[in-house]
Amino acid sequence: MVPSLSFIRNLKTRHKILLGYGLTLGFTGLGVATGIFLSMVLSSGNVSLRQGALDQYKTTHRLFNELSSVEIHRSQLVSIIDDPELLQEQYGHLQESIANFESHWSYYQDNLGNSLIDPGKDSKAEQEAIQTFVDTYKDLPDRYFQRLKQLESQFDLPNVQPDRQDDLQQALTQFSKSDLAKQLEVFLDDLELQSDRAYANYLVTEGRYNRVQLVVQGVLLLGLGISAIVALILARYTSRILAEPIETVTAYVQEALTTSNFQLQVPIHSQDELGALVNSFNDLLQQVATHTQELEVAQQTLEDRVADRTQELQKRVQELNHAQAQLVQAEKMSSLGQLVAGVAHEINNPVNFIHGNLTYVKEYSGGLLKLVDLYQTQGSKTSPEIDALIEDIDLDFLESDLPKILQSMEVGTKRICEIVLSLRNFSRLDEANYKAVNLHDGIDSTLLILQHRIKAKVDVPGIVIVKDYGELPLVDCYPGQLNQVFMNILSNSIDALESRDGDRSLQDIKANPSTITIRSERLNDHSVLLSFADNGSGIPPEVQTHIFEPFFTTKPIGKGTGLGLSISYQVVTEKHKGILSCSSAPGMGTEFRIQLPIHAPATSPPSLLITT
Where does the Histidine kinase domain lie (predicted)? Predict the structure, then answer.
């Protein structure tokens, strides 16, 4: 009988918990035990009966298959007597089939024929039928196999001599027509009939077994269901007694927190530990109400002061860090720009001297070679010393190779002049004013500066640069600062491609080369658009939202300051009144788009060059 509610309320909390667990486990165990007992009673006997029928069917079916295999292999011996290899292989299969049949036939006689019979109303008739079958054919397989062994000994199978192959073929043919072979065929038919009967018996026992199992499952489920329902009712009953005081306290706490009314008092309904806890909680509420009122004014004042001061300090620290980084970077890049301009100037003078004099060297050497050629064609007799010198210096080779050398030197000096011009255009130290320039020249100069990172290495293919330039007018801008923006964007793309190629094989890189595509177009009468797109790994969405923030970088320590894209964004948007945006998806590459006005009011130039 379930205890009354008033009695349970006055129990200690641990006694309430133990009572709830005991009742729940007790009813659950009773239901499970009842279901298991009923299932054992219902299913007893059906498992062994089903297994016996299955074994009987498997054995008779195997006997039929093995004996059929013996007949097939024996009949095929006649047609392959003249092929020793096939004869030996087929004879081996025959012996294997005979061994398997003898094993199963012995098992059938010792077990299935006597014990694995359905003990129903027709069990006696079935027992007699099987016993008659066993008695009828008990010795037939042995006599049949003994006859095959006689043929084996007579003709030395499978190593029969060629001169006896015809005799063996005739003996096998006569054996196929013998009474023993015909008796075996009848035995094979009866064995198939026994297999069909065993299978039918198995189907009957299987159906009976399945029906019993359904009943057993139903009994188990019914017992579990009843016990679960009773256990749930008891669990809910005991848990409600335990949870009701806690829920009451929780409701009062939530109300006190929501309304800030700490004068509330929780009613006490029991004398157990929870009742003592509620009493202590009421005392605590009174103390909280007293202290809360005293703290509210001080806390509000202090929070306002701390919040204002913290916000001001954070703003000042951020401004200070940004300004400090800009000053350091400005000094470093200013010195670098001066160094680049100075080196370009110092290289430019001797290179111009060499390049300019190469024209005269080509002219003078050409005249000398013509003079030598003319001297040789006049047929004048030369001294042995001259002939020896001509042979020693290989005059014919010198006449053909000297113009090539001079041409190569001219190409080299012209390349040096182009590099020097690109360095001067890139630094733009002499063009810091706001002026109209060709943006394509700045991009090409930047690509030339980065050529050492773009070109192919010994073991790594180079980065493919695709230029899709449109017709652009001259754009008003700070040329040197925009060149540095191009440098930042292109350097980031090269970094991303090099990082991805480090994880790829050489074959993969050749099949899908790293590519940077640069496009330009005139959007309308007032603005132009530059696009820098690569086929790298892309930028994750959570990183894209921070790429233009100062000091944000995903590069390893020492390889990035986190200022490149931040100050590039400042140069494009604030100094040139343009738009700098980025679009990317993981695995799809990254594209930076720069939209610039063609004619914009000049602002004060940026205070520093930009770097990543």
Answer: 342-600
Please check whether residue 157 is in contact with residue 91, taking contact to mean a CB–CB distance below 8 angstroms: yes
Q: What span, in angstroms and rounded, lies between the C-alpha atoms of 576 and 485? A: 12
Angstrom CA distances, 538 to 262, 464, 487, 545, 552, stand at 56, 17, 19, 14, 17
Beta bridge partners of 516: 465, 534
**Alpha-carbon span 316 to 309, nearest angstrom:** 11
Cα 105 to Cα 374: distance, rounded to the nearest angstrom: 117
For residue 245, count other CB atoms closer than 10 A to its CB. 22
Between strands 579-584 and 590-597, the pairing is antiparallel
**DSSP string across 486-531:** HHHHHHHHHHHHHHHHTTS-HHHHHHS--EEEEEEEE-SSSEEEEE
Which bin fits 156, alpha (ψ -120 to 50), beta or left (φ > 0)?
Answer: left
Residue 95 and residue 381: Cα distance in Å, rounded?
Answer: 108
| Domain regions of the chain by residue span | 10-231, 432-599
Q: Is the pLDDT of residue 488 over 80?
A: yes
Question: Cβ neighbours of residue 86 under 8 Å, at least 6 residues apart?
Answer: 80
What's the one-letter identity of residue 263?
Q
Tokens of 392: 């020693």
Give the whole-angstrom CA distance, residue 175 versus residue 181. Answer: 7
Token pair in block for residue 38: 């009923």
Domain 432-599, second-level architecture: 2-Layer Sandwich (3.30)
**Alpha-helix runs per DSSP H in 108-178:** 113-115, 123-136, 140-155, 165-176
Select from 518, 502, 497, 494 the least CA-distant residue to 592.
518
Round to whole Å and give the CA distance between 65 and 57: 12
What secondary structure does DSSP assign to 394-433, as a single string?
A: THHHHHHHHHHHHHHHHHHHHHHHHHHHHHHHHH-TT--S
Cα(577)–Cα(573) distance, integer angstroms: 5
Longest dimension (CA), the chain: 146
**Residue 70 three-state SS:** helix
For the segment 550-562, the average pLDDT, to the nearest whole number, is: 65
Can you tell me whether residue 475 is helix, strand or coil? Answer: strand
Residue 592 pLDDT greater than 90, yes or no: yes
- Over residues 456-465, the pLDDT tens digits come to 887 788 899 9
| φ/ψ (deg, to 5) at 538 | 85, 175
Whole-number Å distance between alpha carbons of 530 and 470 = 10
At residue 271, the 3 state secondary structure works out as coil
349-398: pLDDT as tens digits: 677 767 777 777 777 777 777 777 777 776 666 677 777 777 787 777 77
